[in-house]
Write a structure and sequence with these properties.
Strand content: under 5%
Radius of gyration: 38 Å
Distance between the termini: 41 Å
Oligomer: single chain
Structural class: mainly alpha
């Protein structure tokens, strides 16, 4: 008779080949094909349980074959909310029921206007729009400065769209109602002649047109007098300043540079304190530089600037302390307001002031932005439809600004059509625009064709994401490592947040923290898996038996790839698979083959079946109770250490102590130590079962003398 260990070893040493052999068995192949062809058509629990062939296949896959008759019981399992610790499946002792429920998705995914990842993405778009705006201003300024030097007539200016648009925006006269004839008359007007065309305009923006006319040197004929340029240096600077301070909705780095240049060019000409505080631009500059924006009165600044720091009762020390004293110290004014020395500031003092200004010039905008982000995050979660977005102006305008849409010129209908677009449809409105702003906007929201919020399209389903996170936390905290729970929970939260931002395979693989988290959740040491290996895995076609992933002997790698919703191009794809996603289906198929292999093995060697089962379950053994709650695992443990069946009559805590006394559970995660333990079991098994019908078959529901179905049902509902 072949020994139990030899029977076990023949199968386990090339498990992949054995499973491939089982998969080719006619009956197994038929059932597998039927399951694949029909599970996607099922929409409800009743339909699933009512289709005996599908239901029996799944029940066998998860080791619940003997409970197939208990339809009502299993409906309660499948309808359980696995996020609720008190749900039916979570209260059952046997973890197989929870695993079974995890494989299906009868509870609808949560519908949200945005996930946290999408919200972060939108805010990042807004931040990028600020940077883009700053870059655009700098580029426009440079182009104007270069271009205006080549202009020799009004026609040159007005026929150049870039220069014309810049000038109109600089002087806030970018109206759709202007004509070339009108602008020519304005630009050729003599601003010093009260009767000139620009001085007789009776329109709201007349002052702006006059300022624009004054900024150019065209004569009455629209040309330039000899030796005269379209703008002198001062006029160009004035125009650039007008554009920089009026076009963007905030002070850009270009604007800050202009303010810095103005301050440094004029501080040397200040002759007394009044000359400084009466220059509004320089006063605003020092307010910002010293963080004193809340001070509004010129008199306060005069008092600070003229304080005598040698006097302990001076104004700066008494009313502001160190902040005021810093301002006083960086200027050279006497108590009477005159200059103490050669200038209001030395070069070193000016350098300090300017350095502080360039650090703080955008502080107010940054504070306002953070407030806007907080407001948006607080309100977007309550939005149930596109219509509600429109009803909250602050939220709606923020969204448009993030993607570069002007609320004043962008049609609400266009935004609606964009938000309601299905990006998986090449002919959807957003995709047809050929403008990345539209697809970016649509990708960051989850609205259906009618504008109602729906479940997001994610790299992993919400259920899979939660399962990965849960497996990680369990793996990191088992074997009394509860001290790691807080960190493991933080890691899990970071993962569920980070994975929501993943839109492509490249996004995922480029974030090693996410990759390592998934590997660890499957019990794989990240140090043993490099980036190149992961790229090959995710480039694999799981339907091709010869693909890289399918050639791996460790099925966990296929498990990882199938848990993601990526298409052949590496993009997130919608997979409408009914009650079971692609991940759940592939896992069920694999487990069915495992169960079939073990059952077939048990016909010749029940002990080898037990050994194979123990090896398969070892990665999920987290405590002694996992062994005590599984009849087959307990039998392996008892047999290996020659413990009598009567140990099950002991108090459960004493049984747990006994398991931990004989078996170091952490050793089960070491392949070499696990094999050593199984070798011990098989030897002891052969000693204990050298002749006769093997009673172990009853542990797996053999028809000859097994535990009754009613007893199984009762035991399943117990919870230690």
């Amino acid at each position: 008779m072949v020994s139990t260990y030899l029977s076990y070893n023949i199968i386990s040493r090339d498990m992949k080949a054995q499973l491939d052999r089982v998969a080719k068995q006619p009956e197994v192949s038929r059932e597998d094909q039927y399951y694949q062809d029909n599970i996607g058509k099922v929409k409800t629990v009743d339909e699933f349980v009512g289709n005996y062939r599908l239901f029996a296949y799944a029940m066998k896959a998860y080791g619940l074959e003997d409970m197939t008759y208990a339809a009502a019981f299993m409906k309660k399992v499948l309808n359980s909310d696995l996020n609720d610790d008190k749900s039916f499946a979570n209260l059952l002792t046997d973890n197989r029921y929870r695993k079974f429920a995890q494989a299906f998705q009868f509870t609808a995914a949560t519908a949200v206007a945005q996930t946290s990842g999408q919200t972060d993405d939108l805010i990042n778009h807004y931040k990028q729009s600020i940077l883009d705006q700053a870059d655009a201003v700098s580029t426009a300024n440079s182009a104007f400065k270069t271009g205006i030097a080549t202009v020799t007539s009004v026609d040159d200016l007005l026929n150049n769209e870039q220069l014309r648009t810049y000038a109109l925006k600089a002087f806030s006269v970018d109206s759709p109602y202007w004509s070339k004839d009108f602008l020519t008359k304005v630009l050729t007007s003599d601003v010093n002649d009260p009767a000139s065309y620009v001085n007789t305009l009776a329109i709201p923006d007349a002052g702006n047109y006059k300022a624009m006319a004054a900024a150019f040197n065209f004569n009455a004929s629209g040309t330039l007098d000899t030796g005269v340029t379209a703008q002198d240096a001062a006029q160009t600077t004035s125009t650039i300043e007008a554009y920089t301070f009026s076009v963007p909705d905030r002070l850009t780095p270009a604007g800050a540079d202009l303010n810095k240049a103005y301050f440094e060019a004029n501080i040397g000409s200040v002759t007394d304190v009044d000359g400084l505080v009466n220059d509004a631009r320089m006063l605003d500059y020092i307010k910002t530089a010293y963080g004193l924006d809340k001070l509004n009165l010129k008199s306060e600044f005069k008092n600070i600037l003229t304080s005598d720091l040698a006097d302990p009762n001076n104004y700066a020390t008494t009313f502001g302390g160190a902040n005021y004293e810093a301002l006083t110290r960086d200027f050279n004014f006497n108590p009477d307001g005159s200059i103490n020395g050669a200038s209001a500031q030395t070069a070193a003092q000016t350098s300090v002031t300017s350095s502080q200004y360039m650090t703080r010039y955008d502080d107010a905008d940054s504070v306002a932005d953070e407030g806007l982000y907080t407001y948006y995050k607080s309100n977007i979660g309550s939005m149930d439809s596109v219509e509600e977005l429109h009803g909250t102006g602050k939220v709606y305008n923020f969204i448009l600004a993030a993607y570069g849409f002007d609320p004043n010129t962008t049609s609400a209908k266009v935004i609606d059509q964009t938000l309601e677009s299905d990006l998986t449809d090449p002919k959807s409105f957003a995709n047809m625009q050929k403008d990345k702003r539209y697809t970016d906007l649509a990708a960051d929201f989850n609205f259906d064709a009618k504008g109602a919020k729906t479940a997001p399209l994610l790299a992993q389903s919400q259920q899979t994401m939660q399962q990965i996170a849960s497996d990680y936390v369990v793996g990191m905290t088992r074997y009394d490592h509860t001290d790691q729970k807080d960190q493991a929970t933080k890691d899990a939260t970071a993962y569920t947040t980070g994975i929501q931002a993943v839109k492509t395979v490249s996004d995922f693989l480029s974030d090693r923290k996410l990759v390592d988290f998934v590997l660890q959740s499957k019990g794989i040491d990240p140090k043993t898996v490099d980036d190149d290996f992961m790229k090959k895995l995710f480039a694999s076609d799981l339907s091709d038996p010869k693909s890289f992933a399918n050639q791996q002997t460790d099925h966990r790698f296929i498990d990882i790839v199938s848990s993601f919703n990526f298409d052949a191009k590496g993009n997130i794809a919608q997979r409408d698979t009914g009650i079971q996603d692609h991940y759940g289906q592939m896992n069920t198929d694999y487990l069915y083959l495992q169960q079939t292999l073990e059952t077939d093995t048990g016909e010749d060697s029940p002990g080898a079946r037990l050994a194979l089962y123990f090896k398969r379950m070892a990665p999920s053994i987290n405590s002694a109770y996992d062994i005590l709650g599984d009849t087959a695992l307990l039998e392996v443990f008892r047999t290996a250490f020659e413990l009598p069946p009567e140990m099950s009559t002991m108090a459960i805590d004493k049984q747990s102590t006994l398991v931990n006394k004989y078996l170091n559970l952490q050793d089960l995660q070491d392949p070499a130590k696990l094999d050593k333990f199984i070798s011990r079991f098989t030897s002891m098994y052969d000693l204990a079962n050298s002749t006769g019908q093997d009673p172990i078959l009853s542990l797996f529901g053999s028809s000859s003398g097994g535990i009754s179905a009613d007893t199984l049902l009762a035991v399943a509902q117990l919870k230690y």
